[in-house]
Specification:
Structural class: mainly alpha
Shape: elongated
Strand content: under 5%
Order of helices and strands: HHHHEEHHHHHHHHHH
Helix content: 55-70%
Number of helices: 14
Amino acid sequence: MNINISKEEFEETIKVARSPKSHVYDALRASFPLATEKLAVEVLGEKGRQAVSTNGTIARLTKEYVCLDVFIREMRGLDVVLTSTGFGVVSTNDTAPASKQRVDAVEGELRVKRLQTKDRLLLELFKVEGWCDCPQRRVQVPTLFMYSLLSDLAGIARPKEEDWSAAQAPLLEADIFLREHVGNEYMDELLQQWCSDSLTDENHVILFKLRKFMGMKISGNHAGAMTVYRDVINTMERDLEHYKTYANSEAYELNHLKPYENTAEKTAFHWVG
């Protein structure tokens, strides 16, 4: 898949690389095709590839992600330096390159922007017919949570890339718990509807509650998470007609196991002296 990224498009995404000349753009443009193909294989899939040529928003976000991905990976190896105003060639004695802390800060900001761009791209791909059934969806969207939810639902102000990495373990634990107690089938139904932009009103309510549960698990508020979980179960069980997948699941049966009744008619009757 080939896309053409202009100098203007590159510098609109990587604002620190703005320059009357094209030193940075020229140094990186050869890496765009490889990064584009990587994104196509890992995220876009066949349906996404097709959408790039027909959907202007997906095309723009694809270009933005590629610019960020290439720049982040190669910025420290460029034959240019980060000055106080941006990247460029230092050619005079009175221009000093920015400190390592400044370079690290810029890289951190760009990594956050890459995560944000990926979330926006995924949300657009959800609207592409058939993308939800691509293998890329199962890899890129394994749970009901996204990076962009960390601030509101996990209480992490200005979350960084490392915050998202640290959230993966509690997210996996939360997902396993929900699949055991709400049901694999119902969790898959929610993922399928969310990732195909077809959520019912009833499932939209549950999706929001389950995300609150996951956010509390990430923040370590386990008591709060269990309160939300009980609310989820109560909400569904008050209206099982709209939650038939849960109602017909093994999880529902396990949630309603009756305690053993010790009566004389039982073959395993226990005498208590």
